[in-house]
Amino acid sequence: MIKNLTRxxxxxxxxxxxxxxxxxxxxxxxxxxSHIQGLGEVIHINExxxxxxxxxxxxxxxxxxxxxxxxxxxxxxxxxxxxxxxNTLWDKxxxxxxxxxxxxxxxxxxxxxxxxxxxxxxxxxxxxxxxxDSSKIPLRFYYLNKIRQLKLYPVHVVRNPLGVVWSYTRNxxxxxxxxxxxxxxKACLDWKRVNKFTExxxxxxxxxxLVRYEDMCRNPQMELDRIFTYLGIPNVKIxxxxxxxxxxxxxxxxxxxxxITEIYDLKSWESGFSEYEKDRIIKYTxxxxxxxxxxxxxx
Length: 299
Known about the structure:
Layout lengths: L9 E7 L6 H8 L5 E3 L6 H6 L14 H8 L16 H12 L8 H18 L3 E7 L1 H7 L5 E9 L2 H9 L14 H18 L7 E4 H6 L1 H12 L6 H4 L27 H4 L2 H10 L1 H6 L8
Parallel strand pairs: 1-3, 1-4, 2-3, 4-5
Helix pairs in contact: 6-8, 7-8, 8-13
């Protein structure tokens, strides 16, 4: 099957960006098109199946008929996870330098073949034109972009770091998880690191689209039109898809399991952070804060 696939025969809209940037919302809106199938964060598929976690439809993966159909046609998922280099600071630094110099990073044939198998299975079962992988991880995009059978459409989603840090530090979603809430500084550095890494892997791409979460909330129809035009498929009217019921995404945040009746940016950080905290966040993220034009929106 893999040998018979021609170049660019599988189209993937790959969502990049930091956590808490609105990728779940954007994927759910795009997947309302009859031409698009949203998969969720494919990079986590191994652990989700191994631990039998919940699908966004509300059922466990093992009980979800949608995912059972996929599994029957997929031999193995063992190599779907990106094989990262050793987790030392030196290795991370070297990886960043290699990407900056656009050096060739290799991956296994098993990794390539099993990604193609999975994506091909979705296309065969669902009959869509484009799949969405919202893994967000820049290195996964880099590897997928080297597979000649895949045609990737990178969508870089960014959100005001004030909103991202507020979402990280308010600790609502993580009360039942063994997860330490990061400090303001660490959350800022993570936001900056992921967006810097994303800019690096997109450096040589002929196709790329930047989407700001705030713009999507402010004018969802205009932003959806822009994305659908970029993907080369017919537009969808926002009034025709709301309210939006949960589908079958894997991973993602709480919004994946909710019915969406309206789109808005809560902006809790405006009253949640002190002026001192806001100044610190802007200081830590200054370069990309300005690059994505958030400095124009601060009173």
